[in-house]
Amino acid sequence: MDKHFWNLVWYKTYADIAADGQQTYLGYLWWFIEPVLQVATYYVVFSVLRKGAGEHFLQFLIIGIFSWRWFSSCVMTSARSISRNSGMMKSVSIFSLFFPAYSIAVSTIRSATIFVIVLILLISTGFIPGSAYSMLPVLLIVQILLISGVGLLTASVMPFIPDLAKVMELVMRAGLFISGVFFSVDQIPEPLQAYFLMNPMAFMIQAFREVLMKNTIPDLEHLAIISLCSIAAIIVGYQIIKRNNVVYPKVLA
Amino acid sequence: MINGSAEQPIVALENVGMYYASIRRIINARRIWALKDVSLKLFAGETLGIIGRNGVGKSTLLLMLAGIIEPDLGTIKKGPGLKASLLSLQAGFVGDLTGRKNIILSGMFLGLPRRSIKAKIPEIIEMSELGEVIDRPVSTYSAGMKARLGFSIAVQIDPDILLIDEVLSVGDRSFQQKSKAILHEIISSHKSVVIVSHSPEILESLCDRLVWIEDGVSKAEGEPDDVLRMYYDFLEQRKDKDKNAVQNAAQQAGQT
Q1: Closest Cα to residue B108, out of B162, B62, B170, B153?
Q2: For A123-130, what is the mean pLDDT?
């Protein structure tokens, strides 16, 4: 991985972001329309139809959907990125890490833009930044590590096990319901809470809410464990990709 | 011609074989051998042609020479530090971006540093004859315009060994002459080139030596005249065989 590799990752990321604005009449507005509609739907379902969703449910929901969408969209595009680019691999010689790397970069830039809107919304509805905001960069970095770990590891094995894409779709669909996007951890029976938080995304969503809505520092030890596991996954994923760089074009024939 | 017997080849393949991933079944998975037993040598500065019918493994062989895939059998010896690249047209084009941005993107995919591809933009625009259209999205281009742009970017690469797969003239008719001339110029310069084609006429005029591949096996290597004679004989025999097969089938059909 030399300088040229990373230059290409950045230029391809820039190119894809630029293309996002060209592909449709509404262009970049689509980055926001989808999550807004999703928030609106769940808000109607959980708050209006089923009374008693709790105070500030809208803000609660927005944070949940933001972090979940960032994770799921990023991981899914990354997971498929190597499998989908066999044509490219057969026309130029390129290190396959390129495909998940720029996929993660593109989704992260989209999500970061949405995050700015989320922050503005929270602040303008009375959630004034407190001292716990200092933890925000840490949370964002851990979330990126987590996404990169899962994204790289799944991308590295997907060419050998195409069925994994189907499995991941199911897991992601279930994940939306078991990661606490619509509910908080204290709504779960006490003995199950520890199991619930073993899902790293459940913990991350809770941590984002603690920092942004309750001005509370999240459990740092738990954050450290997620970071370490993610880094381990990144290293393993990277090694698998490195070893199989000349194997992927054969497997994906 | 440069290939003396005393000279060392810059690339040598010895009894190389390679299979593609099998048909995906948990039980009874099968391997598909694209190459079975290929040996060949490439000498510095020569143009080597690879001839054979469709689907005999020629393109796989080029991928292997480019280092994109590795053999499962046999050995490849390549001179240290030598870079072999495919002449890839329109690599990594993004339709919604302007031609100008695609020049940079595609050029970088081909391995050119960003700075040097940027410096070559005027030359590429001129060669592709696109003029002001270069600042419009590539998705608005005609197939011919896209081919012209792709070609003009692709020929900017300067590897030690250039690998060409069936792309000897591209674009609309007027551009075909030009692209052909440009490629001929590159090929006849002192660069080492490997060209794959199923067209004997093209290879005969361009190549110093030929290799004939049939069903994943290198059948002959040598002077174009000699190799082509064997190739033609083989095609004739096949034709006769096919004719006989058709006649036999017709006879059998008549008997029943």
Answers
A1: B153
A2: 89
Burial bucket for residue B203 (CB in 10 Å: 0-12, 13-18, 19+)? buried
Q: Chain B partners of A11 at a C-beta cutoff of 8 Å?
A: 104-105, 108, 114
- What pLDDT is attached to residue A213? 92
From chain A, pick out residues whose CB is under 8 angstroms from the CB of B161.
none
Distances (CA, A) of A203 to A68, A130, A143: 11, 21, 11
How far apart are the C-alpha atoms of B159 and B191, rounded to whole Å?
9
Banded pLDDT at B184 (limits 50, 70, 90): confident
ipTM: 0.83
Binding-site residues on chain B for chain A (CB distance < 8 A): 18-21, 24, 32, 63, 66-70, 85-86, 88, 91-92, 94-97, 101, 104-105, 108-111, 113-114, 137
Tokens of B173: 């008719």
Torsion of CA B136, B138, B142, B143, to 10 degrees: 160
**What is the dihedral sign for C-alpha A154, A157, A162, A167?**
negative
Instruction: Delineate the domains of chain B, giving CATH numbers in brackets.
Output: 11-86+201-255 (3.40.50.300)
| Mean pLDDT score of chain B | 87
When CB atoms are compared, the residue of B19, B96, B105 closest to A12 is: B105
Identify which of B20, B95, B114 has the shortest CB distance to residue A7: B114
Q: What are phi and psi of B51, to 5 degrees?
A: -115, 155
User: Using a CB-CB distance cutoff of 8 angstroms, which residues of chain B are in contact with residue A246?
Assistant: 67-70
Q: How many domains does chain A have?
A: 1
Q: Which two tokens stand for residue A14?
A: 């820039």
Q: Nearest to residue A223, comparing CAs of A154, A118, A146, A160?
A: A146
Domain that holds residue A212: 3-251
Q: Exposure of A44 by Cβ count < 10 A (0-12 exposed, 13-18 middle, 19+ buried)?
A: exposed
pLDDT digits (tens, 9 = 90+) for B41-52: 999 999 999 999
Positions of E strands within chain B: 11-23, 30-42, 47-51, 73-78, 84-86, 161-165, 192-197, 209-214, 217-222
